[in-house]
Design a protein that fits this description.
It is a single chain. The chain has 299 residues and is of the alpha+beta class. It has two domains: 183 residues, Trna Endonuclease, Chain: A, domain 1 (3-Layer(aba) Sandwich), CATH 3.40.1350.10; 94 residues. The chain is built from nine helices and eight strands. It has a four-stranded mixed sheet, sandwiched between helices. Helix 2 packs across helix 5, helix 6 packs across helix 7 and helix 7 packs across helix 8.
C-alpha cells in the first residue's frame, strides 16, 4: 500500500479510534482496507468473501489472495486476520483474544525490537519531515485452535520488491512474532508457476466462501468422479451434481475444493478453458502450494 501524503499521524489515530486491528472472526476490522477512504494500494486489491473469517477479507494484491488460498488448506485454522497491525509499544498477545491462557503476558513492540536489532523503525513523512512512528502490519495472520492455540504470520512480497530496506523490515516483523513464540513465513508468489497462480486465483471464488466439506463428503466427490484423467470439467461437475442432487454452483464449490485440497489430483497448470478439455492428472512428486507454510508452522 502506498505511503504518501494521505498517510499521516491523524489518519492512523482515527483508524485506531475506529477499532481497526481489533476483534476476531466477523467482528475483526483490518488495519488497511479496500475502500474509497483509504490510500490506494500499489497492486490489484480484492474484497473476498471468506468462510474462515465469516466476512469479506481485504487483500491488497494477487499475492495476498494466493496466500489466503494456501492458508485455507492448512489443518486446524479457525480464523484469519488480514492487514494485522503490530504494536509499536509493548502489548498483549493476539491469542489472548481467543484463549485466556495468553491474557497475562506483555510482549515487546516494534520500537524496542528495532532498537535491539539496530534497525531504523519505519516512520511517517509529512513533507520532508519524519513526524511519527509508522504502524507496521502483517499481511495475513492465521489462527489455529488444533492441536493447540497458535498462529502463523505470513508476509507477502514479490521477489523483485525485497530490497535491503524491505529485508530489514521483514527481519523486524519476524522478530515480533518470534518474541511471541509464533511462526513467521515469507510468502513469495513467484515460486508458484504462472499457470498454477492463474488457476488458483480462478478457484478462489468457489473455495474461499465455503467451509471445508467433511471427510465423508470429500470421499463421495472422489468416488462420483472416478478417474480424473478420463473426465472433462463439465463431465466431472455433472457427476457431482448427480451424486448430490445439487445445483451447478454448489457442485463447482465441491469440485474445486476437492481439487485444491488434493482429493482430485488435477494438474493446476492445465488449460481449463470452457470445461470441455480433458483434465490432466498432477504429478505425484509435485508438492502442494501450501507445503512451505506447513514447514514453517512445524519448525
Amino acid at each position: 500500500m502506498r505511503k504518501g501524503r494521505q498517510f499521516n499521524a491523524r489518519k492512523l489515530q482515527r483508524w485506531a479510534e475506529a477499532g481497526r486491528g481489533e476483534g476476531r472472526h466477523s467482528a475483526y476490522q483490518p488495519w488497511h482496507q479496500v475502500r474509497r477512504g483509504d490510500p490506494a494500494s500499489l497492486g490489484r486489491s480484492h474484497l473476498q468473501l471468506s468462510a474462515l473469517a465469516d466476512r469479506h477479507q481485504h487483500l491488497l494484491s494477487d499475492g495476498e489472495l494466493l496466500a489466503l488460498m494456501c492458508v485455507w488448506a492448512l489443518p486446524g485454522v479457525t480464523d484469519v486476520l488480514e492487514q494485522f497491525p503490530l504494536d509499536i509499544e509493548p502489548g498483549a498477545h493476539v491469542l489472548a483474544r481467543y484463549y485466556q491462557g495468553f491474557a497475562s503476558g506483555v510482549y515487546p513492540g516494534t520500537k524496542a525490537l528495532a532498537e535491539r536489532l539496530s534497525i531504523q523503525h519505519p516512520r511517517i513523512r509529512d513533507g520532508a519531515c519524519l513526524v511519527d512512528q509508522w504502524v507496521m502490519s502483517t499481511d495475513i495472520l492465521a489462527i489455529f485452535d488444533s492441536p493447540s492455540w497458535r498462529c502463523l504470520a505470513v508476509s507477502v512480497k514479490p521477489s523483485s520488491k525485497v530490497t535491503n530496506r524491505v529485508a530489514e523490515k521483514l527481519r523486524l516483523e519476524e522478530a515480533y512474532w518470534l518474541e511471541r513464540g509464533q511462526a513467521w513465513h515469507l510468502f513469495i508468489g513467484e515460486t508458484i508457476p504462472v499457470k498454477a497462480r492463474y488457476s488458483i486465483r480462478s478457484m478462489a471464488p468457489y473455495v474461499l466462501p465455503h467451509a471445508q466439506p467433511p471427510p465423508e463428503v470429500r470421499q463421495r466427490v472422489v468416488d462420483a468422479i472416478g478417474e480424473i484423467s478420463s473426465k472433462s470439467i463439465a463431465q466431472a461437475l455433472a457427476a457431482v451434481q448427480a451424486e448430490f442432487r445439487m445445483c451447478l454452483e454448489d457442485a463447482q464449490a465441491l469440485f474445486w475444493q476437492g481439487v485444491w485440497l488434493g482429493d482430485l489430483p488435477v494438474c493446476l497448470q492445465s488449460h481449463f478453458g470452457r470445461g470441455g478439455a480433458a483434465l490432466r492428472r498432477a504429478r505425484p512428486d509435485v508438492s502442494p502450494a501450501w507445503a512451505p507454510l506447513l514447514r514453517s508452522l512445524a519448525s
